[in-house]
Structure formats: structure tokens, C-alpha cells
Specification:
The complex is a heterodimer.
Chain A: H1 2-23, H2 32-36, E1 53-55, E2 66-71, E3 76-79, H3 83-109, H4 113-117, H5 122-130, H6 133-146, H7 148-166, H8 175-180, H9 189-204, H10 209-219, H11 221-228, E4 277-283, E5 294-302, E6 304-305, E7 310-316, E8 319-325, E9 334-337, E10 341-346, E11 352-358, E12 366-369, E13 372-375, E14 377-383, E15 391-397, E16 418-424, H12 432-440, H13 445-452, E17 460-465, E18 470-475, E19 490-491, E20 510-512, E21 518-521, H14 543-554, H15 560-567, H16 573-585, H17 593-604, H18 615-635, H19 647-656, H20 674-693, H21 702-705, E22 708-712, E23 721-724, E24 740-742, E25 745-749, E26 755-759, H22 777-781, E27 786-788, E28 801-807
Parallel strand pairs in A: 1-28, 3-7, 6-22, 11-19
Antiparallel strand pairs in A: 2-3, 2-28, 4-5, 4-21, 5-24, 5-25, 7-8, 8-9, 9-10, 10-17, 11-16, 12-13, 14-15, 17-18, 18-20, 22-23, 25-26, 26-27
Helix pairs in contact in A: 3-7, 3-9, 6-9, 10-11, 12-13, 16-19, 16-20, 17-18, 18-20
Chain B: H1 2-17, H2 25-34, H3 38-63, H4 67-75, H5 81-110
Classes of the chains: A alpha+beta, B mainly alpha.
Chain lengths: 808, 112
């Protein structure tokens, strides 16, 4: 009897143990019971239902029914009889495909990743709080809700997302919720604002003040003059030099003497990717085969799965618009309607400045300003951490903006506290949704310009085309600055260092129908030196901008196919300017066999960054080694964070004077010459290639060496696409560099009927179990563009519609 | 054998209306009612739930061209998607075996 009891207890115990083991997270993995059971685990995500369905929306949230047609790429075409229903449906449909991505990205923007991931992301979350992301989003949300049109749009959009969330249950949560073991949260307009401010960080988050100040303190003004002020001869600004600035600029008060900030030991731990940028252009009817303008755009961002973009068509009572949207915000961001087309590239103006603040004492309650003491404000940020206690972080705000130190999380220390506060355009209350709202409905140039008045940040080169006109506006809210204001840390106590006003809208750089017959931008200098306001000192290297302009100038009878090919152009202006210097100094007598083969390949190279070629790998490795050989020794003499010159600056400097002092390697007793560095770096390059990619051969192909992985948004292994073999390089029009590149490619032909083509390296579905999660990557690699089906009316029963849903 | 089939059927029906842990229930009850021996209970229990999960996971795997199974295999650094199926089946089988055994042993105490 006891034996049976014991046996029973053993079995029951084992069962309970099993139940327990399957219910708790094991290390980073979620509980296995919920994850692996076929009914509600990941198995349930393997297929999406794709039949014509009527979806009942409860509580009369819709005033009429909405029809959504999915084409063969699973792009939804939404038809609604009123705007509220239209945006509601956009929210619902976007959530249906991309809910987890929307939630994760807005959690990241809000510095709330630790709620989902745990302690690992605490540093990141703290940083987001300290640069005032939620503060910025709250302002943006208020602005959205102040305007009745955008308020209605964003509320309807939120309601649509929440209607989708409401009908979810355990089994059909998107996969990542199951893997990361969390559940969906209600959507609010604040989240839409967070998404937009996150884009502002991505595109207008670059700031070099701290590094520049250190560099000036450490290397001196002379160095800055000779190195960091240099501009390549080949720079071709967005607004051509021929443009006359026919206005009297407003005067800006300069400070009497230059402020010398203290050296900064602790720079911010995160910066947006400097490669974030893009290409866009528009050609006028005088240069096209059809006689009507063509517009093209490819924004360059970190490529992820799901993609940052989601294609949609919106057909409502006062608009019919299609293009790329950002999951989390209503409207179309890059696209076209029946009359116009538009696209964007990043300007990269300096709209983030640092100020040195002298506090009265270690309480940080007051700081010096204009000869007096001013009070700070405190904002308490609570950061929830999965599996741990909530962390509290108190952020001090000056009237400039938040004091972002102390990054380490240690308590603020005493003795004379000097810290840095930031002033950032994102903190300014603005309603960019209004711009998109008006632009989506715009009929022509005047509407475009009118809409732009609402556009403040991030500063973007908005390119425009309709049947008659082409134009580009370097749009945004720009503080009126004196020359080089904000390039270095400013004096936070001196009013002369404030942003003294805004460049009037009519004085912001714009060009319409230039004589040369095209407009373009590729993140290079927006204007030539005669523009009377200071925008920034640092823009992208000249190569893409010049290449685009050279090609467009040379082309006639342009067709959309020509534009598609230009987007795929992989010519390297960087190689054109740098290789002669490298070749002229290379001693070929003593090269090893591998090095000789490599050298020969390079000599035969046509300067195209094609994945199939080996030469680009050799060139890029050689250049990287050479660049480091020139600058590492000087820059390596200190731990301070410094500003490095760009590649085209380096080429320009050496072209002008090959006997420069920086050629010499100061860590060695002898004096190196250019030839020394060139030869040594060639050696290094060959060694590194051999070490990483084996012996000279197919393993060295640029498509492998460029290492393009399209990773998952949440960096979950297995949910990305690795080893994408493609053409492209950072300096080419087709700007694929590593996992960074053209996240959307679009070409629009204007005319009596707008025709458009688009693609991105991903898929419409955010479900990793779906065929449509990454189905467009291969076509994108090949440079294909899909014809976008721009429906004028609801389609008849047709083969090309994969399925449809009706929301009622 | 009937035990296994009934286990599979009940587990499947319960999974339609209750969360994942409902898979623990059939074995406890049916093991008590139909279990004849210790090893038999465990064995048929294993086959019942393990078999159900095998059919379900294999179906999903095949019908979806294994897209997700392959990704989950990568996620857990497993060499093959079939290992994912195997682990699913083993877990299901273990649940079935242990619960049915426990059910049987409970009844065998009472029948004394």
C-alpha cells in the first residue's frame, strides 16, 4: 500500500515538476509549454489566414463599411467613404501585419525596452529618457491633437489598431510576443508621436559638438582649418551654385569672444548611424521620353525584418494616395497621388547643440545664465525592468533642454558641477502629420509649398513633381545661427549662444524647374557658400550627389527604366579619386603572389562596386587600412572622443599635399612617407582579406565581404535573412553597405495617369512564418521594381486581387 | 490503444477552449479510468499526446513549407527543423506519459 502511495507521489511530483519547468522562462528563452504546444504556440503562427472575410468591428467604431483589397504582394488597397474610417482601417490593417514591430519600435523610442528584454537594455533606455524622447513625443502629441484634422486622423488610426488588438487571444498573438513573452499594449496617439520622434532621432540626431570641442582643445584650430574644414573640390550642392538668394537675411548677433568649453570625458554612448541618408531626384518633361516628369527616391536606413516601411494605398473622399508608410503613423510618407509625387532625403543640418552648464552646487537646482542664477526643473523617469525592480532616474532640465549626463547611472557627484545640456529640434512642438495630411491631398506645387509650412523636423530635402513642375525644398525649421554656431559646445550662460530665431520659410533653400532640367539630393551640402545662413559644417561626402548629377545631366529621353538603373548604379567616385594616389605610391617589385594578383585585379577594375567582383573588396580594405594608417597614430594618443575626417576630406587633403605631417606615423622613430603608408596598408589589406576570407578567389567577392545581413528588428536570431549577396557600397548611388541601404526604392512617372514602381528588401507581412515576410528581398537584390497597382476605383472581381477583407 | 486515441481526442478538444496547460488534464482522468498497468499507462500516454502533437506539428510544418520551423530551429541553434518537431513531440509525450501514469497510480491506491 505504501509502495503504491510512494509511486503515486513520485509520479505526481514528476508531473508537477514538468509542469513547472514548462511554465517558467529558462534563461533568455520563454516558457516552453506556451511556446511549443501546437495549439497556441509558435506553430499557430505558421500560416496566416488568407480568405475573403468580413470582419465585424464592435461598438460602431466605423460609420460605414471599408473594403481592403490585397494584391499579389499583399499590399492593402483601402477604400473608405469617410476619413475617420479610412484611418481606422489603415491602423487595423497595419496592425494586422506589423503589430509587434510597431509596439517594439515605440517601446524602444520611449526607453521602455527593459520592460520586455530586461536589464540588458537599461543603458539604452536611460539614454532615451535623458535625451528627452518622451518629453519630445508629448509635445508632438499635443500638437497633433490641437489640430482637428490630425487629431481625428491619429485617434481613428489608434482606434483601428486597438480594435485589432482586442480580437487577439493567446493563440494568435504575433510570434515575437510568444518568444519574448509579453502581451500587446493599447495604442495611443503618444505612440504615434514617439515613432515620429524616433525618426527625428534617426535622421536629425547627429551631433558632433562634444567631439569637435575636444578636437579643437586637443589638436587646435590649425588642425581644424587644415583637416576638418576641408571640402572636396568635387562637391556639388543640392541647390546648384547658380541659384541667387534674392533676400536680405536677418541679422544674427555673434558673441564677442569665443567660448572655450572644458574637455568632455564622457560623450553620449549612442549616435544615429551616420550612413542614414538617401538619394532622390526628379527630371523635368524636357528630358524625358514621355514629356512628363519622373521622380525617384530611395531612402537609406538600417535594413531590418520587418522592414521599416509598409506599402499601402488609401482611397478616401478627398484623397487617393499610395506609397510607403511608417507602421505607427497614419498617412503616406513617401509616395504619390493622382497628381503629384514626392520623396525625401536627409538634410543633416545641425539642429542638436550642446551647452556647458555651470551649476550653483551639487543639488543642480540652479545654473548660471546671463549673470544670474536660474532654476532647473526635474523630470522623474521610471524605467520598468523585466524581472527586477523599477529604476528611477531623475533628469534635470534647463531652459535649453535636458542635462544628459550622467550616462553611467551613478549618482551625480559633487564639487563644481559642469554638465552639458542639449537643445534639440525634436523638443520643439510641431505637427509633421499636418504636412503629410496636406501633402497626401495636394494637387500641385502650391499645395506642396503650403503643406511644407508645417514641416519642421527632421529637416529633409523634399523632392516634388507633378505634370508640369519639378522642385526640391531643403525643408525644416532651422535656427538662425552665426557662422559655426553649434559646431562646438556653447556657453550655456550666454544669451548670444541661444537659437536666435528661425530662418523664415521663404528664405529656406528651394529650387523649382531649374534650367538644367533636374533636381536631386544625396545628403551632400545643401547650398553653396554664398547662402547667408549657417546650416552645418558636415554633410555626406560628395560622391553620390555628383554621380547622380553627372548621369542626369548626360541623359536624354529618360524613361522610368533609366531611373531604375540609376538607382542601381554602383560606380565609385571614391575609387576614382583615391586609387590614383594609392597606385602611384605602390611599390610593385616586392609584392607576394597574392598581392600581385590583387593588384592586377584592381588595375583591371572598372570602378564598379559589383557583388560578383573581387576588386571592390580589395579597394575598400586597402582604403580602410590606409585611412587608419594616416590618422590612428595622431588620434590614438588620447582617450578623448574626437571628430575624425571623412573619406573625401582625406582624399582631398592628400591630393593637395602629399608630404603632410599626418602621413608620418608618430609612434615610430623614423619619418614615414606617403609611399610607406600606401605599401604598408596594402599589405595589411591583403593579410586581412586572406585571414577572413581565405585564399584569393571567389571567397573574396564583394558580395560576401560587404556582409549584408537583414536582421530582425528585435535582433532575435533566426528571424532575419543572413548573407544577402548584393551589389552596392556606401559611396555609390546603390548605397548598400553592410546591413544599411536602400530600404525603399520608388520611381514615379507623372502624366495624365500616374504610373509608379516600388520595392523594399522585406515583405508586407510581419509574421516570420509567412511567405510574405521576406519575399521581395531577392527581387530587390536584382534591382527589380514592382509595378504598383494604383487603383482608381474598387477593383472588379479579378485574379490580381489575392483576397479582400471588409471591415464593418 | 484506445487510451491513446481518447487521450489525443480529449487533449485536442480541450486545447480549443482552454490554454496550453489543459493538455495535462486528459491523462490524469483517463489514466485513472482506463489505465491497466504502470508501464502501459505511461507508454500509451506518451503515444497519445506525443502522437497528437506529432500530427499537428508535422501538418503545420508541411503545409507551410517549413518556413517557421526552420526559423525556430535557427533561433534555438538546432541544426534541423525536424529537431524542433522532435522536441515538441518529446515534450508532448512526456506530458502524456507522466499524467496518465499519475492518474493510473492514483486509482490503483483507491482500488486497494
Amino acid at each position: 500500500m505504501t509502495k503504491k502511495v510512494l509511486q503515486f507521489l513520485a509520479a505526481a511530483g514528476a508531473t508537477l515538476l514538468l509542469f513547472w519547468a514548462l511554465s517558467i522562462p529558462l534563461g533568455p528563452a520563454p516558457p516552453l509549454g506556451p511556446l511549443l504546444n501546437p495549439a497556441t504556440g509558435f506553430w499557430a503562427n505558421a500560416r496566416a489566414a488568407e480568405t475573403n472575410t468580413n470582419i465585424k468591428i464592435p461598438e460602431k467604431a466605423l460609420s460605414d463599411s471599408v473594403h481592403v483589397y490585397y494584391d499579389e504582394k499583399r499590399i492593402p488597397h483601402i477604400f473608405a467613404s469617410n476619413s475617420e474610417d479610412l484611418y481606422f482601417a489603415q491602423g487595423y490593417v497595419t496592425a494586422r501585419d506589423r503589430l509587434w514591430q510597431m509596439e517594439f519600435q515605440t517601446h524602444a523610442a520611449a526607453g521602455r525596452l527593459s520592460e520586455i528584454i530586461g536589464e540588458r537594455t537599461l543603458k539604452y533606455d536611460r539614454f532615451q529618457r535623458r535625451i528627452g524622447m518622451i518629453y519630445a513625443a508629448e509635445k508632438a502629441r499635443d500638437a497633433m491633437l490641437d489640430d482637428p484634422q490630425t487629431a481625428s486622423a491619429v485617434k481613428s488610426y489608434s482606434a483601428g489598431i486597438n480594435a485589432y488588438i482586442k480580437q487577439l487571444n493567446d493563440g494568435n498573438y504575433p510570434l515575437e510576443y510568444k518568444i519574448l513573452d509579453h502581451t500587446p499594449e493599447q495604442w495611443t496617439p503618444l505612440k504615434t508621436a514617439l515613432l515620429l520622434k524616433h525618426m527625428t532621432y534617426t535622421l536629425a540626431g547627429n551631433n558632433g559638438d562634444l567631439r569637435m570641442s575636444n578636437t579643437r582643445a586637443y589638436f587646435g584650430d590649425d588642425f581644424i582649418d587644415k583637416v576638418l574644414d576641408v571640402q572636396s573640390d568635387l562637391t556639388d550642392p543640392t541647390i546648384p551654385k547658380s541659384k541667387n538668394w534674392n533676400f536680405a537675411p536677418k541679422k544674427v548677433e555673434k558673441p564677442d569672444s569665443a567660448f572655450t568649453p572644458s574637455v568632455v570625458k564622457n560623450v553620449q554612448p549612442f549616435q544615429p548611424d551616420p550612413r542614414n541618408g538617401s538619394n532622390n531626384w526628379a527630371v523635368s518633361g524636357s528630358k524625358t521620353a514621355s514629356g512628363y516628369p519622373i521622380l525617384a527616391n530611395d531612402p537609406h536606413l538600417n535594413m531590418t525584418l520587418p522592414s521599416i516601411w509598409y506599402a499601402v494605398q488609401l482611397h478616401g473622399p478627398d484623397q487617393n494616395v499610395m506609397g510607403a508608410t511608417l507602421p505607427g503613423a497614419p498617412g503616406v510618407i513617401i509616395g504619390f497621388n493622382e497628381n503629384i509625387a514626392w520623396g525625401t532625403t536627409n538634410v543633416g543640418a545641425d539642429v542638436w547643440d550642446w551647452y556647458e552648464i555651470e551649476f550653483r552646487d551639487s543639488t543642480l537646482a540652479q545654473y548660471r545664465y546671463d549673470g544670474d542664477w536660474r532654476s532647473t526643473q526635474k523630470r522623474v523617469e521610471k524605467i520598468a525592468v523585466k524581472g527586477q525592480e523599477t529604476i528611477t532616474d531623475t533628469v534635470i532640465y534647463t531652459h535649453h533642454g535636458p542635462v544628459t549626463q550622467d550616462f553611467s547611472g551613478e549618482s551625480i557627484r559633487s564639487n563644481v558641477p559642469k554638465y552639458h545640456a542639449m537643445r534639440w529640434i525634436a523638443h520643439k512642438k510641431s505637427n509633421e502629420l499636418k504636412y503629410f495630411f496636406e501633402l497626401n491631398r495636394a494637387d500641385g506645387y502650391d499645395d506642396y509649398r503650403q503643406a511644407l509650412k508645417h514641416y519642421e523636423s527632421p529637416a529633409q530635402n523634399w523632392v516634388f513633381a507633378d505634370r508640369n513642375d519639378i522642385a526640391i525644398t531643403v525643408a525644416g525649421a532651422y535656427p538662425q545661427k552665426w557662422d559655426e554656431q553649434g559646431r562646438y559646445i556653447g556657453d550655456g550662460s550666454d544669451p548670444a549662444y541661444e537659437w536666435q530665431g528661425w530662418i523664415p520659410f521663404e528664405q529656406i533653400p528651394v529650387i523649382k524647374n531649374p534650367e538644367r532640367g533636374f533636381v536631386s539630393s544625396a545628403n551632400q551640402e545643401p547650398v553653396d557658400n554664398d547662402y547667408p545662413y549657417y546650416l552645418d559644417d558636415e554633410f555626406a561626402p560628395f560622391e553620390r550627389g555628383r554621380r547622380i548629377n553627372d548621369r542626369l545631366a548626360a541623359m536624354e529621353n529618360i524613361t522610368p527604366k533609366d531611373m531604375q538603373q540609376l538607382q542601381m548604379d554602383v560606380y565609385s567616385y571614391h575609387a576614382e579619386t583615391a586609387l590614383p594616389i594609392l597606385f602611384n605610391n605602390l611599390n610593385t617589385d616586392t609584392l607576394s603572389e597574392t598581392a600581385q594578383q590583387a593588384h592586377q585585379r584592381l588595375q583591371e577594375w572598372n570602378l564598379e562596386n559589383k557583388g560578383e567582383k573581387i576588386a571592390p573588396s580589395i579597394f575598400h580594405h586597402w582604403w580602410d587600412a590606409f585611412y587608419n594608417a594616416v590618422w590612428n597614430d595622431e588620434y590614438g594618443t588620447t582617450d578623448l572622443a574626437l571628430q575624425w575626417p571623412s573619406r573625401d576630406q582625406t582624399v582631398q587633403i592628400i591630393k593637395k599635399d602629399s608630404t603632410l605631417q599626418w602621413i608620418d606615423d608618430i609612434t615610430t622613430p623614423q619619418k614615414e612617407t606617403l609611399a610607406h603608408l600606401v605599401n604598408r596598408s596594402f599589405q595589411t589589406a591583403i593579410e586581412k582579406l586572406s585571414q577572413d576570407y581565405g585564399s584569393f578567389g571567389d571567397g573574396w567577392k564583394w558580395g560576401y565581404v560587404n556582409e549584408t545581413d537583414i536582421g530582425h528588428v528585435g535582433q532575435v536570431p533566426g528571424l532575419g535573412r543572413v548573407d544577402v549577396f548584393t551589389d552596392g557600397a556606401g559611396e555609390s548611388v546603390n548605397a548598400v553597405r553592410g546591413s544599411h541601404g536602400p530600404s525603399w526604392r520608388m520611381v514615379v512617372q507623372l502624366g495624365p495617369e500616374v504610373k509608379a514602381w516600388g520595392i523594399y528588401p522585406g515583405g508586407q507581412s510581419g509574421n516570420p512564418g509567412s511567405k510574405y515576410y521576406d519575399n521581395m528581398i531577392d527581387e530587390w537584390v536584382d534591382g527589380e521594381l514592382n509595378r504598383l497597382w494604383f487603383m482608381r476605383d474598387q477593383p472588379a472581381v479579378s485574379d490580381s486581387v489575392a483576397y479582400s477583407i471588409t471591415l464593418q | 490503444m484506445i487510451l491513446a486515441l481518447l487521450l489525443a481526442l480529449t487533449a485536442w478538444l480541450l486545447s480549443l477552449i482552454l490554454p496550453w496547460w489543459s493538455v495535462f488534464i486528459p491523462g490524469l482522468i483517463l489514466g485513472a479510468i482506463l489505465g491497466k498497468k504502470g508501464t502501459g499507462s505511461f507508454g500509451w500516454g506518451f503515444v497519445g499526446i506525443g502522437g497528437l502533437w506529432l500530427v499537428q506539428s508535422l501538418y503545420v510544418h508541411l503545409v507551410s513549407d517549413g518556413i517557421l520551423t526552420t526559423r525556430i530551429a535557427d533561433l534555438f541553434s538546432l541544426g534541423s527543423p525536424f529537431l524542433v518537431i522532435l522536441i515538441t513531440v518529446l515534450i508532448g509525450g512526456l506530458i502524456g506519459g507522466l499524467t496518465t501514469l499519475t492518474g493510473y497510480l492514483f486509482r490503483s491506491i483507491l482500488s486497494d
